[in-house]
Design brief:
- The protein has about 200 residues and is of the alpha/beta class.
- It contains 7 helices and 5 strands.
- The protein has a 5-stranded parallel β-sheet, with helices on both faces.
Length: about 200
Protein backbone atom coordinates (compact mmCIF):
# COMPACT_ATOMS: atom_id res chain seq x y z
CA UNK A 1 0.00 0.00 0.00
CA UNK A 2 1.23 3.48 -0.84
CA UNK A 3 2.52 5.78 1.89
CA UNK A 4 1.40 9.41 1.78
CA UNK A 5 2.66 12.25 3.95
CA UNK A 6 0.54 15.24 4.88
CA UNK A 7 2.89 18.14 5.65
CA UNK A 8 1.66 20.91 7.96
CA UNK A 9 3.04 24.07 6.37
CA UNK A 10 2.80 26.34 9.42
CA UNK A 11 4.50 26.45 12.80
CA UNK A 12 3.18 29.65 14.35
CA UNK A 13 1.35 29.74 17.67
CA UNK A 14 -2.42 29.61 17.25
CA UNK A 15 -2.22 28.09 13.77
CA UNK A 16 -5.19 26.27 12.24
CA UNK A 17 -3.30 24.55 9.42
CA UNK A 18 -2.90 21.49 11.66
CA UNK A 19 -6.69 21.09 11.79
CA UNK A 20 -6.88 21.15 8.02
CA UNK A 21 -4.04 18.63 7.79
CA UNK A 22 -5.88 16.24 10.13
CA UNK A 23 -9.02 16.55 8.01
CA UNK A 24 -7.00 15.69 4.90
CA UNK A 25 -5.25 12.78 6.63
CA UNK A 26 -8.59 11.36 7.80
CA UNK A 27 -9.73 11.17 4.18
CA UNK A 28 -6.46 9.69 2.89
CA UNK A 29 -6.56 6.97 5.57
CA UNK A 30 -9.54 5.45 3.71
CA UNK A 31 -7.29 4.76 0.70
CA UNK A 32 -3.62 4.59 1.76
CA UNK A 33 -1.20 4.63 4.66
CA UNK A 34 -0.87 8.21 5.86
CA UNK A 35 1.31 10.13 8.28
CA UNK A 36 1.15 13.76 9.30
CA UNK A 37 4.52 15.49 9.17
CA UNK A 38 4.64 18.57 11.39
CA UNK A 39 7.39 21.08 10.62
CA UNK A 40 7.32 21.99 14.32
CA UNK A 41 9.22 18.72 14.85
CA UNK A 42 12.03 19.81 12.51
CA UNK A 43 13.86 22.86 13.77
CA UNK A 44 15.34 23.64 10.37
CA UNK A 45 17.72 26.59 10.17
CA UNK A 46 17.27 29.02 7.29
CA UNK A 47 18.75 27.48 4.17
CA UNK A 48 22.34 28.62 3.65
CA UNK A 49 24.12 25.64 2.13
CA UNK A 50 26.86 26.18 -0.46
CA UNK A 51 24.58 25.46 -3.43
CA UNK A 52 21.44 23.72 -4.63
CA UNK A 53 21.23 20.35 -2.82
CA UNK A 54 20.66 18.61 -6.17
CA UNK A 55 24.09 19.65 -7.40
CA UNK A 56 26.35 19.46 -4.33
CA UNK A 57 27.96 16.02 -4.53
CA UNK A 58 29.78 16.09 -1.19
CA UNK A 59 26.84 17.54 0.71
CA UNK A 60 26.88 17.02 4.47
CA UNK A 61 23.51 18.18 5.82
CA UNK A 62 23.20 19.17 9.47
CA UNK A 63 21.63 16.48 11.72
CA UNK A 64 18.17 18.10 11.83
CA UNK A 65 18.22 18.60 8.07
CA UNK A 66 19.16 14.93 7.59
CA UNK A 67 16.27 13.94 9.87
CA UNK A 68 13.90 15.94 7.62
CA UNK A 69 15.34 14.48 4.41
CA UNK A 70 15.22 10.91 5.72
CA UNK A 71 11.62 11.32 6.85
CA UNK A 72 10.33 12.90 3.64
CA UNK A 73 12.13 10.27 1.53
CA UNK A 74 10.01 7.49 3.08
CA UNK A 75 6.83 8.42 1.19
CA UNK A 76 5.35 7.76 -2.25
CA UNK A 77 3.13 10.85 -2.35
CA UNK A 78 2.48 14.05 -0.43
CA UNK A 79 -0.07 16.67 0.47
CA UNK A 80 1.27 20.10 1.33
CA UNK A 81 -1.21 21.97 3.51
CA UNK A 82 -0.42 25.65 3.44
CA UNK A 83 -1.71 28.91 4.80
CA UNK A 84 -1.37 32.00 2.63
CA UNK A 85 1.03 34.63 3.96
CA UNK A 86 1.63 37.82 1.98
CA UNK A 87 0.34 36.28 -1.25
CA UNK A 88 2.52 33.19 -1.05
CA UNK A 89 3.14 30.04 0.94
CA UNK A 90 4.70 30.19 4.39
CA UNK A 91 8.42 30.80 4.73
CA UNK A 92 8.83 27.69 6.90
CA UNK A 93 7.39 25.46 4.17
CA UNK A 94 9.47 27.09 1.42
CA UNK A 95 12.59 26.71 3.58
CA UNK A 96 11.87 23.00 4.15
CA UNK A 97 11.41 22.48 0.40
CA UNK A 98 14.68 24.29 -0.35
CA UNK A 99 16.58 21.57 1.56
CA UNK A 100 15.24 18.79 -0.69
CA UNK A 101 17.40 17.20 -3.37
CA UNK A 102 15.82 14.08 -4.93
CA UNK A 103 13.53 12.95 -2.09
CA UNK A 104 10.37 13.93 -4.01
CA UNK A 105 11.68 13.12 -7.48
CA UNK A 106 8.90 11.72 -9.72
CA UNK A 107 6.42 11.70 -6.83
CA UNK A 108 3.00 13.41 -6.78
CA UNK A 109 2.13 16.31 -4.52
CA UNK A 110 -1.41 17.54 -3.89
CA UNK A 111 -1.86 21.11 -2.69
CA UNK A 112 -4.38 22.23 -0.06
CA UNK A 113 -4.59 25.85 1.04
CA UNK A 114 -6.56 28.17 3.25
CA UNK A 115 -6.85 31.91 3.53
CA UNK A 116 -9.00 34.78 2.36
CA UNK A 117 -9.02 33.45 -1.22
CA UNK A 118 -8.69 29.82 -0.21
CA UNK A 119 -4.91 30.03 -0.27
CA UNK A 120 -4.98 30.45 -4.06
CA UNK A 121 -1.77 32.47 -4.29
CA UNK A 122 0.04 30.14 -1.87
CA UNK A 123 -0.98 27.19 -4.04
CA UNK A 124 0.11 29.05 -7.17
CA UNK A 125 3.52 29.67 -5.58
CA UNK A 126 3.89 25.99 -4.73
CA UNK A 127 3.00 24.98 -8.30
CA UNK A 128 5.99 27.03 -9.43
CA UNK A 129 8.31 25.73 -6.70
CA UNK A 130 7.71 21.97 -6.71
CA UNK A 131 9.13 21.15 -10.18
CA UNK A 132 12.46 22.47 -8.87
CA UNK A 133 12.72 19.42 -6.62
CA UNK A 134 11.37 17.03 -9.25
CA UNK A 135 7.89 16.69 -7.75
CA UNK A 136 4.73 16.50 -9.84
CA UNK A 137 1.79 18.54 -8.60
CA UNK A 138 -1.65 17.05 -9.14
CA UNK A 139 -4.02 18.89 -11.49
CA UNK A 140 -6.62 19.41 -8.76
CA UNK A 141 -6.03 21.52 -5.65
CA UNK A 142 -8.24 22.47 -2.70
CA UNK A 143 -8.89 26.14 -1.99
CA UNK A 144 -10.55 26.26 1.44
CA UNK A 145 -12.43 29.56 1.62
CA UNK A 146 -14.23 28.93 4.92
CA UNK A 147 -12.74 29.94 8.27
CA UNK A 148 -10.80 26.84 9.33
CA UNK A 149 -11.18 27.60 13.05
CA UNK A 150 -14.98 27.53 12.67
CA UNK A 151 -15.23 24.75 10.08
CA UNK A 152 -12.80 22.04 11.23
CA UNK A 153 -12.43 20.91 14.84
CA UNK A 154 -9.15 19.99 16.56
CA UNK A 155 -9.55 16.34 15.54
CA UNK A 156 -9.93 17.18 11.86
CA UNK A 157 -13.70 16.78 11.64
CA UNK A 158 -15.41 19.03 9.11
CA UNK A 159 -18.57 20.84 10.16
CA UNK A 160 -21.59 18.69 9.26
CA UNK A 161 -23.27 21.42 7.23
CA UNK A 162 -20.22 21.54 4.98
CA UNK A 163 -20.09 17.75 4.79
CA UNK A 164 -23.69 17.69 3.57
CA UNK A 165 -23.03 20.23 0.80
CA UNK A 166 -22.75 18.09 -2.37
CA UNK A 167 -20.44 20.67 -3.98
CA UNK A 168 -18.59 21.65 -0.82
CA UNK A 169 -15.09 21.06 0.49
CA UNK A 170 -15.63 17.41 1.49
CA UNK A 171 -16.52 16.43 -2.05
CA UNK A 172 -13.55 18.45 -3.34
CA UNK A 173 -11.22 16.73 -0.88
CA UNK A 174 -12.53 13.29 -1.85
CA UNK A 175 -11.82 14.01 -5.52
CA UNK A 176 -8.32 15.31 -4.78
CA UNK A 177 -7.44 12.31 -2.62
CA UNK A 178 -8.67 9.87 -5.26
CA UNK A 179 -6.54 11.64 -7.86
CA UNK A 180 -3.50 11.68 -5.57
CA UNK A 181 -3.80 7.96 -4.75
CA UNK A 182 -4.15 7.11 -8.45
CA UNK A 183 -1.04 9.11 -9.35
CA UNK A 184 0.88 7.84 -6.31
CA UNK A 185 0.31 4.21 -7.32
CA UNK A 186 1.05 4.84 -11.00
CA UNK A 187 4.26 6.76 -10.36
CA UNK A 188 5.45 4.26 -7.73
CA UNK A 189 5.05 1.52 -10.32
CA UNK A 190 6.87 3.59 -12.94
CA UNK A 191 9.77 4.30 -10.57
CA UNK A 192 10.11 0.57 -9.86
CA UNK A 193 10.25 -0.26 -13.58
CA UNK A 194 12.99 2.28 -14.27
CA UNK A 195 15.33 1.10 -11.49
Amino acid sequence: MSKIAVVIGSIHEGRVTDRQAKWVANEISKHADVEIIDLVDFDLPMFKETGSPRYVQDRKPAPMVKKWLDKINQFDGYVLVTPEYNRSTSSVLKNAIDYLAYEMEHKPVALVGHGSAGGAQAISSLRNIMPGVGAITTPKALYFTHRVSESIDENGNLDQELVKNPYGPQMQLTNIVEELVLLTNALASARTQTK
